[in-house]
Hints:
The first copy, chain A, is an alpha+beta fold. Among the domains of chain A are: about 75-135 and about 155-195 and about 230-300 and about 410-500, 4-Layer Sandwich (Phosphatase 2c, domain 1); about 305-385, no CATH class. Helix content of chain A is about 25%, strand content about 20%. The first copy, chain A, has helices spanning about 1-15, 65-70, 80-85, 135-140, 170-185, 190-195, 235-255, 310-315, 435, 440-450, 460-475; strands at about 110-115, 125-135, 155-165, 200-205, 265-275, 275-280, 285-290, 295, 325, 345, 355-360, 365, 370, 375-380, 390, 410-415, 425-430, 475-480, 480-485, 495-500. In chain A, the strands form six sheets. In chain A, strands 2, 3, 5, 6, 15 and 16 form a six-stranded antiparallel beta sheet that branches. In chain A, strands 1-20-17-7-8 form a five-stranded antiparallel beta sheet. Chain A has a two-stranded parallel ribbon with strand order 9-12. In chain A, a hairpin with a 2-residue loop joins strand 18 (about 475-480) and strand 19. The two termini of chain A are about 35 Å apart. At the A-B interface, strand 4, helix 7, helix 8, strand 10 and strand 11 of A face strand 4, helix 7, helix 8, strand 10 and strand 11 of B.
Amino acid sequence: MLNRVRSAVAHLVSSGGAAPPRPKSPDSPSATSESQAAAPGAPKSPPAKPGTASGSGSGAPAKTPEARASFSRPTFLQLSPRGLRRADDHAGRVVQSPPDTGRRLPWSTGYAEVINAGKSRHNEDQACCEVVYVDSRRRSVTGAPREASQSQGFCFYYWGLFDGHAGGGAAEMASRLLHRHIQEQLKDLVDILQDPLPPPLCLPSTPGSPSYSNTSHLVSPQSCWSSQKEVTHESLVIGAIENAFQLMDEQMAQERRGYQVDGGCCALVVVYLLGKVYVANAGDSRAIIVRNGEVIPMSREFTPETERQRLQLLGFLKPELLGSEFTHLEFPRRVQPKELGQRMLYRDQNMTGWAYKKIELEDLRFPLVCGEGKKARVMATIGVTRGLGDHNLKVCSSTLPIKPFLSCFPEVQVYDLTQYEHCPDDVLVLGTDGLWDVTNDSEVATTVDRVLSAYEPNDPSRYTALAQALVLGARGTPRDRGWRLPNNKLGSGDDISVFVIPLGGPGNYS
Amino acid sequence: MLNRVRSAVAHLVSSGGAAPPRPKSPDSPSATSESQAAAPGAPKSPPAKPGTASGSGSGAPAKTPEARASFSRPTFLQLSPRGLRRADDHAGRVVQSPPDTGRRLPWSTGYAEVINAGKSRHNEDQACCEVVYVDSRRRSVTGAPREASQSQGFCFYYWGLFDGHAGGGAAEMASRLLHRHIQEQLKDLVDILQDPLPPPLCLPSTPGSPSYSNTSHLVSPQSCWSSQKEVTHESLVIGAIENAFQLMDEQMAQERRGYQVDGGCCALVVVYLLGKVYVANAGDSRAIIVRNGEVIPMSREFTPETERQRLQLLGFLKPELLGSEFTHLEFPRRVQPKELGQRMLYRDQNMTGWAYKKIELEDLRFPLVCGEGKKARVMATIGVTRGLGDHNLKVCSSTLPIKPFLSCFPEVQVYDLTQYEHCPDDVLVLGTDGLWDVTNDSEVATTVDRVLSAYEPNDPSRYTALAQALVLGARGTPRDRGWRLPNNKLGSGDDISVFVIPLGGPGNYS
Lengths: 510, 510
């Protein structure tokens, strides 16, 4: 099934969002006909249809791969050519937000971003905010009217932050397509998720064939096990998001030669669907909810430090992935030849503590995981361990691929929006690591309180004002030959992107 | 180094705790000469020296392997032959505790146990409570007096619960020897742990050679990395405990042919050392602190459900471990041949959610992980995924070994006893799964309050009374053709063992 869905999305991409040819059999899923939101623009494709104010680049003019790779910003910023140049200025570092006029982002979402201070030529962050309609796969195939008992399709709301590295191509591709993969994955689930009964164990073999009915569950639960494991609706949405990330990554792998999918990106994605907020994170961006002044963490960072044991286990089980250059053991610093025979602190894939071991020849290899904090690296190269892309990433001056150690799978956390009555000051804040490198959860909560209390609760511009304040606060001002914060510490020289999503208030669910 | 230490412990075992021959070189560690507590009795060995009231089996009479395998209880219970027979009675299920006369367990620790209701012929739980002295390895090797600047050895307090399965041999061996392995691992650390400076990066090549001095750190921290990772004293103790578990498991593997090390066991171990409590858990026993009526979880259970993704990843990376009989994919129940071609719910090693996949021929294999709750199994065989032993465990009616999927490594949690002033009602409760199957944290906290408040705070028998109440409460009474709790639910038919360790009060640190 995964392959089929990938083909459908790939078709959608290569056709530039135009409707695919009429399927020859009910087997073939249609990827576009029920989409209300604009289809994404595709690399090297003609312009997608315009008029999607909230789309990320989907209404952008067609660009050659070179132009695309050079610089683009989310369409919802509505930047003029002059604005684009301003946004690309490392010296001025002007904070960008959607214009205060015209159509707002869904839920009155706030957004702000700023380019780095010279770390890379262009801003490698990308962002996307969309409302995506999902119709049952079946209807588009048969063309027949829905049975009375079958439910309508549904919308999901979608926000994505993509923090690129080693080029902007992966982040841009993900910002244009990841929500489409999620949409594809959800098509099978349209009826199931709106049916109060537990999900059926089996579906008919053909997605889109009309025989699904929840009354049967198709196969009786009796078998060699005494009972059948219960699967929740929520876990189906989580599985759909997880598989969408994997398919997005596979698509990048397949199309990296045809299109300039350079580098990789962290992906932090929020899906609101049927009353629940799903926060999916693969990388070192972070999401928190600030509710009634309190912080609720909604993601964990995936770095060489937090994923050390996973990485070491893989190196231990598949030593061929380490070449002759790396050891899966960790040492507090690199072992030097003169230390052969001494006993040095180490830990392996099973240990959280440290012990001493006698240094042998192969311990002189470079450790798979080394360094601390922001300097921690896998194979001395990359500082994040989950994300999309990086299929071409090799160890410096070597042919050893790093991708096998990186995971494209997000961790998904769920927040039930119906379990709590939210006020207009309750927000979900998403930020790339440029924000979190120089601030923390409680400082962000303080800024939330300070900025939102300066605006009327029903003023929809307050959330963009908050996003701007967060980005400005993390960027600092250009004093003393560097961007500095009020406490004279260095501000973030990285790209910074922030979404502020209100969880209650007038803008919601609209 | 690990091999050397294992040899030392093996020697200790095979010599029955007698002092080893004078080492021929400073390389050979001595495992016994600085031990204050009694050396453990060894399988097939002559009786260990008597007089260790708190030892677990260490003062037990010599038994043939057959006798040992048949039945033994912790020595600190001081059971007479008649008492031993009573403790082995599945019908009566008399709760056993140390006698209220004579020498108490360290810290006035309370203990109680009861045999199962017929699940296995004998009680397969074992327990150990010891005070273990650790002297520097160096002294015992050189025999020379310590330099003035060098510190004295130290004691650690030790409690262990071992929940055996498929035989009692592994649990008994672990109860006799695991603390000796911990002692061995700590010998290198005697000076380091008592030195306020950070642990040295390197030690001289020979454990026991006299050149360790913390001033040098031997190698300068400058190298290709900008800084050297800081390693804490605490993490050295954790590493020592982790390696001790591994060495214990290796010893079981090596000696399983010579001695009757049948089955395997979960191990829940507490080490108190230099102000901190280390709780190490490998299996499905559980430890909680009840402090001022509040529950602080001190362990997590390791079961096919909690370790699903680790198990599936191993099966995915090493499919040869699955033979032709198992699939690493999980399904809500076993797939049936007639479901070929349908799409069924599944999840793989990367997913926490569920999705649908088309059933192919190899999905008809049995899932590596199946079932729910107490019925969850790895390879349809075993319900715990960490512990010691099980080296002979095979899939039923197959030669496929299960051990590669089991981990002997504990998760270690640390509690700093000096950070809080504890009252006599604050306790650490350890219980095998027989306790937790029928009760929960908050019910245990209620029982702690109820029982302890009925005794004077300085009455040292209150902790054993509490352990007895917990075991009685989980066992129930023999009504209605089964052991039943007051709410008429079934009581635990499993072996039940409980330690109650007071964290404050008169009995402490003595």
